[in-house]
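Quick one, T. Sequence first:
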Amino acid sequence: MDLNIAGKIVLITGASKGIGLAAAHAFAAEGCALHLAARSAPALDSAKAEIAARHRVAVTIHAMDLSNAAAMIELARRAGDADILINNAGDIPAGPLDQLDDTDWRRGFELKVFGYIALARELYARMKTRKSGVIVNDIGNSGENWDANYIAGSTGNAALMSFTKALGGVSLNDGIRVVGVNPGPVATDRMVKLMKRRAVDWYGDESRWQELFAKYPGGRPATAQEVADLMVFLASPRAGYITGTIVTIDGGIAAQGSII
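Structure tokens:
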């Protein structure tokens, strides 16, 4: 299927690893030029070299700490020509209410919640002048499947789901689509960290985190490639009437009310 996005410019945050890096490869394979943003300059250098060699597309990297609005505004200035924004950077801490202080909450929300909103606001204004653009927010299924042991993440993700639906409900009149993706467990370094926390909650031993795989639908987590492929489709004209909605990719975990 030709997705008709060759030549589009894509900005991806959190692009040095995990879902962000998989998305970078997936969009590059479709012939898109890339702006990749993340904290680690060496990781971005490596990603740029690999993607440019494999897919022969233009790759611009932005090694930045995105945990404040000023950085997001600067990133939007550098990558204001982006046709597609993939909001992906985020690391909200796990834990129940009594184990997270205000600093934990604010640190997590600055990058993911307020960061997504700030970058979307800046890019939306530029897209609106062109009457064209797509914003894809990588959120997480805990926003619809609440988890007291990931209470900051559930709260932040629920807020981003509401933000995505509210903005996406009116954005098509500006020629823009805004959609969300809600992954469940995905085979990334971040998933390992969260599953180790879950293993402590359930078994009192973080080293038993791999035992949790048996509880997943199909006995496995999603792959980063599966999430990236969904993002590419949603960003393409093939999904041209999809906006203001969230697509969950978790093997049915939220549908069955499980918190695994």
